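Subgroup meeting minutes
Present: P.N., E.W., G.H.
Scribe: E.W.

1. P.N. recapped why we're keeping a running log of single-chain structure predictions: easier to compare across weeks, and new members can see raw inputs and outputs side by side.
2. G.H. added today's entry (315 aa).
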Amino acid sequence: MYATDLMGLTLDNPVIIAPGPWSRGEKLKDALQCNAGAIITESIVSESYSDTCPRYTYSNDNRGIQNIRLYSALELEEWIHWLSEAQKKNRYGSSSKLIASIMGTSPSELSYIAKKIEKTGIDGIEIGFACPMGEGQDIIAGDPERVYAYTCEVVKAVHVPVSVKLSAAVGNLSAVVEAAGKAGASGISGIDTLRCILKIDIESGKPDLPTYGGYSGAPIRPIGLATIASIAQCTDLPVIGMGGIENYENLIEYIMAGASAGGIGQRFCFTATMWSPRQYSIWKHGCKLTASNPSKRSEVELCRSFIPLKRSSVI
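Output recorded in log:
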């Protein structure tokens, strides 16, 4: 499987473990030992919250998953402990890069978290602007001026590359991407989950979960592919594609749409092989075969098999 350059970091492969409960605290060891190209932590905030339960619901007809988990329930100091512990133990023999996802309600709060987390030895930081739950995050995601201000503050505060995670649910995506680039972002990632209510029991009149949440899984992949293609057409920054990746073919689709790497999240949420190194070896083998095939390699390197949209027409 081919090495991937991402924001100045050399990844052994383009497979990334996306933010989620599988990439936090004591579970970091298991995640690292999968030897993905990189791991992005669950979103870290300055103050934790009471964890919601139940927080997931899913359907049996492949309609995806809804979650109402906003961000990590761990305290910032707990995160510092676990990340420092991983660093002290040489990341448990893993070559995976470690990227910390952070969220905050102001530029100063984000820069504070970023400075504290950087000291643990992480390789990069991702700012989450795209969470569809909670107050205000979706507003920030669609405001180029605020994206610029928040990103600029974090970039100035740290010495590691900073990426920005954007939402598909904004009407001025190209302007937001441009703002992130001007602020000094080293990369762009997307998409996050989409706001949804997965299902309502028509007998009781109640939804499975008490509020709307984030929608993930295979059904959002077409939206993710379109968003990544749009982002790639309006920036030269490396792009991480996420949303509905379930196998190596899906990952290659994202690379062909313009991504440098792909993040897998929900795929591991309800599977017994969630931490199976063998599963990763299958992915690596599939991508390696594709990369070694001249016709497929040329398609991957082109990353464009469609007519580029005019900048003004990018969603």
